[in-house]
Specification:
The chain is α/β, with parallel strands linked by helices and 204 residues long. The protein is built from seven helices and eight strands; from the N terminus they run βαββαββααβαβαβα. Strands 1, 2, 3, 4, 5, 6, 7 and 8 form an eight-stranded mixed sheet that branches. α1 packs across α7.
Length: 204
């Protein structure tokens, strides 16, 4: 891939690592589709007292996302752990600052999908996914889920929804992703990449 290659932005916040692992598997699915690549980005944590000043480059993991990363993407996969049935504050803080992109219509007609991780099976996975869709709809993005042609949706005993990939991390947030959860992350990445190419007119 070259600097001019189209890319899917995989933007996430992860506290204990599960959402980051999901992001990496979604990126792998994207990279399995020819003609497009994944770009992994994260956001810094924020303070409850005042805005925290983070280093420009994090100590490890993905780089912090910039507005240009979002503006120039061909599609977006947005991931967050669940916070009381909603996306985590650091991710929402970043999205709340994208009004310039909304005004310019930079994200209109680009495909987007969402993914999440929770401690418990009924810990708000689906409401978190829906909460992440709302600002993307305001940006004019085309929301993509996971179709039931992915058989893992019917057989999973852990995470996995038609709204997007999910993971059940357990009370101590240390359960590994199941085979079904991994497969659904991969499928979500592949579908998003394929849709991005189709919407851009790069495939029949």
């Amino acid at each position: 891939m070259t600097e001019q290659s189209p890319y899917i932005l995989v933007l996430y916040y992860s506290r204990h690592g599960a959402t980051a692992e999901m992001a990496q598997r979604i990126a792998r699915g994207i990279n399995e589709v020819g003609g497009i690549e994944a770009r992994l980005r994260t956001v810094p944590a924020i303070s409850t007292v005042c805005e925290a000043v983070a280093d420009t480059i994090p100590e490890d993991g993905a780089l912090y996302c910039t507005e240009d990363d979002l503006r120039n993407c061909a599609g977006l996969a947005l991931g967050s752990p669940t916070r009381f049935g909603n996306m985590a504050a650091p991710l929402k803080y970043f999205i709340d600052g994208t009004s310039g992109l909304w005004l310019s219509g930079a994200l209109i007609n680009k495909p987007a999908s969402v993914f999440s991780s929770t401690s418990s099976l009924h810990g708000g996975q689906e409401t978190t996914l829906l909460s992440m869709m709302l600002p993307l709809l305001h940006h004019g993005m085309v929301i993509s889920g996971i179709p039931y042609s992915e058989s893992e949706l019917l057989s999973t005993q852990a995470g996995g929804t038609p709204y997007g990939a999910t993971h059940v991390a357990g009370n101590d947030s240390n359960l590994p992703l199941t085979e079904s959860e991994l497969a659904l992350c991969l499928a979500q990445g592949k579908r998003l990449a394929s849709l991005a190419l189709k919407l851009a007119g790069d495939t029949p």
